[in-house]
Amino acid sequence: MAEPNNSLHIFTFLLLLFQLAFSWKVTPPLPILPLPSYSQLKWQQREIIMFLHFGVNTFTDSEWGTGLESPSIFNPTGLNANQWADAAAQAGVSLMILTAKHHDGFCLWPSKYTDHSVIGSPWKNGLGDVVQEFVNAAKARDIDAGLYLSPWDRHDKRYGHVKLYNEYYLAQLQELLNRYGSVREIWFDGAKGSNAPNMTYDFREWFSMVKELQSSINIFSDAGPDVRWVGNEKGYAGSTCWSTINATSLSIGNASTLDYLNTGDPKGTNWLPAECDVSIRTGWFWHKSQAPKRPSELLDIYYKSVGRNCVLLLNVPPNTTGLISESDVQRLKQFRGAINTIFSTNLAENCSLEACSQRGGENGGFGPKNVLDDDHLWTYWAPSEKQKENYWIEFKPKSGKIKFNVIRIQEAIGLGQRIKKHEIYVDGIKVARGSTVGYKRLHRLEMGVVDGFSVKIKIVKAKGIPLISSIGLHFDPFWKPKGKVISQRVH
Ligand SMILES: *[C@@H]1O[C@H](CO)[C@@H](O)[C@H](O)[C@H]1NC(C)=O
Ligand SMILES: *[C@@H]1O[C@H](CO)[C@@H](O)[C@H](O)[C@H]1NC(C)=O
Ligand SMILES: *[C@@H]1O[C@H](CO)[C@@H](O)[C@H](O)[C@H]1NC(C)=O
Ligand SMILES: *[C@@H]1O[C@H](CO)[C@@H](O)[C@H](O)[C@H]1NC(C)=O
Ligand SMILES: *[C@@H]1O[C@H](CO)[C@@H](O)[C@H](O)[C@H]1NC(C)=O
């Protein structure tokens, strides 16, 4: 009689024989919880989302309206939402979010529950609906729509009367989520002036209603439930940034959790990735006196948001004509152009690859070559389960040296975020290191351009075996590192 231990070995051996004989595929490894939802994965792949702040503030040259503005000042005579959507499409954006109502309470759609809206405006003789035009324009270009409905309302008299205002807010949510087709993201924030009346929002009821009306939507707020705030309005994530966090430690409008929001939590029990909101200009609304940020600033934001496992929510405000200013349109084009210039070529594409080990051996389907294909989610290099540490993957050009100044690493986040610490070596010399990777980690090399015969990525610490879906070596012609410049390392 065989010992139980031996019978397990015999079983494993037979399984292996069967696999060989019938060429079964080696199974993927088990995931590490928590995992993203379908909608969260889709959101993550968007990388850049566009925000449009538009309303009475556009016409009063302010950021926070008082709620006392007359609807008659809202008159964007040349409003053309197709121009907004064209600008977004050129910038490679697949989701646009509009401020349907900001803190001033003015509604960009004809709500049944108030007269403080476009109904009272000269624009289209009170027959206009900005939300409808926005949604139509986006849809025509295959861009998804999202909406922001400010909880804080400085106009409505019901604000401060808990039951009445929650009913009013929920009624407007139902209008927005029932009338305008598919809405992919809804934005809630905790912004509120210090003198505002006390008000308790029924967030649980609101969120439940949102999910009931739009099943594939992502709800953004300081505390999720689908997407969290990154904790600042600069567009910067922490250099450590986990998509996981404990939602129970978060609450909306709680300033004491900003650092936690910025970095996430390796032990977090919720998948709640961060969105980095920032405006292309100083303010969120359009002001004649302001200009868009320089391309180098936008690129810096890209590296510190998308390049740190987050999605960038870039605000581009329409002007009083109702159009996005030409300077902003041009800036968006330059920004997208720069991203394409840097990332459309993977300098590692023809390299030969080697790794410490691979799941299922040579023909297991989890070899290092997977990091060079076009799938950045579901094909990946997986080391053997037997390997418990010292994970590495190495690139060698088939001839000569490889020269680059940016490295891109992507984890197969569909199976959980795992990497805690990683390092990059060129010909045995460390050129970059970092902690988390997540969906996408970008390193712009501090020392500038490096060249060498081999590039090795070491995964020093991870939760379980690391799974890497993509790696790229790139050249960023715009990157001019400050400080100790060793722009070329000569051998
Ligand atoms: C809000 O409530 C707090 C505590 O109940 C109270 O101290 C404060 O005066 C209230 N503020 C307003 C504006 O009503
Ligand atoms: C803010 O967050 C901290 C840390 O999670 C928590 O201790 C505190 O109770 C929260 N405050 C409010 C008002 O929710
Ligand atoms: C988050 O929750 C996990 C599981 O309960 C716990 O181990 C961890 O310490 C929590 N994180 C923080 C910062 O409290
Ligand atoms: C708004 O932008 C459009 C498009 O660039 C421009 O034609 C128009 O003059 C701008 N309006 C204002 C008030 O600057
Ligand atoms: C890889 O090889 C192909 C085919 O020879 C070539 O067209 C391409 O430019 C090479 N890529 C790089 C980054 O050198």
From TrEMBL:
<dbReference type="InterPro" id="IPR057739">
    <property type="entry name" value="Glyco_hydro_29_N"/>
</dbReference>
<dbReference type="InterPro" id="IPR017853">
    <property type="entry name" value="GH"/>
</dbReference>
<feature type="domain" description="Glycoside hydrolase family 29 N-terminal">
    <location>
        <begin position="71"/>
        <end position="334"/>
    </location>
</feature>
<comment type="similarity">
    <text>Belongs to the glycosyl hydrolase 29 family.</text>
</comment>
<keyword id="KW-0732">Signal</keyword>
<dbReference type="Pfam" id="PF01120">
    <property type="entry name" value="Alpha_L_fucos"/>
</dbReference>
<feature type="signal peptide">
    <location>
        <begin position="1"/>
        <end position="23"/>
    </location>
</feature>
<keyword id="KW-0326">Glycosidase</keyword>
<protein>
    <recommendedName>
        <fullName>alpha-L-fucosidase</fullName>
        <ecNumber>3.2.1.51</ecNumber>
    </recommendedName>
</protein>
<keyword id="KW-0378">Hydrolase</keyword>
<dbReference type="InterPro" id="IPR000933">
    <property type="entry name" value="Glyco_hydro_29"/>
</dbReference>
